[in-house]
Specification:
By secondary structure, the chain is of the alpha+beta class. It contains 10 helices and 4 strands, in the order αααβαβαβαβαααα. The chain has 2 domains: 179 residues, no CATH class; 85 residues, Alpha-Beta Plaits (2-Layer Sandwich).
Amino acid sequence: MSSNLGMNTVKQHLPKDWLCELRILHRLGIQTCNDIKRTGWVNIVIITTMAAILTIFGACFRTALSISSFSKELGSALEISVYLKNYANAKEIKNEISKYEHVEKITIIPKQESWSKLKAEMSLPNIDNPLPDTLHVKVDDPENLQTVFANIKKIQSVEDISYAKDLAVKMEVVNHVVKTITLVIVLIMGLLTVTIINNTIQLVIQARKDEIEIMRLMGVSNWYIRFPFIMQGAFYGFMGSLVALIPLDYIQTGLTNVHKFFMIPTPPYALNYVVVIMFTMSILFGAVGSFWCIKKHLQV
């Protein structure tokens, strides 16, 4: 009993053979490079095709961010105009509305100020001021305009309320369409990437069929067999994204000029965000396509 405990204690203190593990990784890395070389000129076709798909994705995604920025900027200019009854106290109504969710800013426009501006612009008879006190309510997001509008409408001291509903609805529709198109493009990109990688890895597997069968008969781990193929798929995704950066830079410059022309700020870190997403998705889809392909082969 004591001898077994002693052996377990010794085993726990034995250092791991990190050198052996590094040799295995080195061997897998060499195998991955050999598989890529074996594919030959087809690598150029695959990377070029991947780059074209990723360029379309990057362009659409980056454009979608700009469209959302334009929509949000226009939406921030939309305000709900609240017209109060004669007996209403504007400051009290302002305090009440400010408690509502999504309300960002409230400006009181006294009826005397409105009447003075109107008289300065138009020739009016000398009559009593018929205008009410007005509140201009700014909402944090155009999508929340209708919610805030419905809440304010319930206040009894409010005579009337209005906002550019048609414009708000159109901007909301544009946002939803842009998001839907972006999602569809992501799905299409994923499907095309997985299909291309799957077919490519299938060719490599056929070329190494006998070698893989021998390794399986020798009891080699499936992960040892899979790893070079998964890395090859990830390599194609990475290289495709790298090439796609060239046209994406021109697209970024064009969109920046459009923002400057309309004097609307460019979304912060938009290009960085697109690049990170593009590289992550391409590498992931490339690795997944390879994994599925070799998994089907190993199950035969």
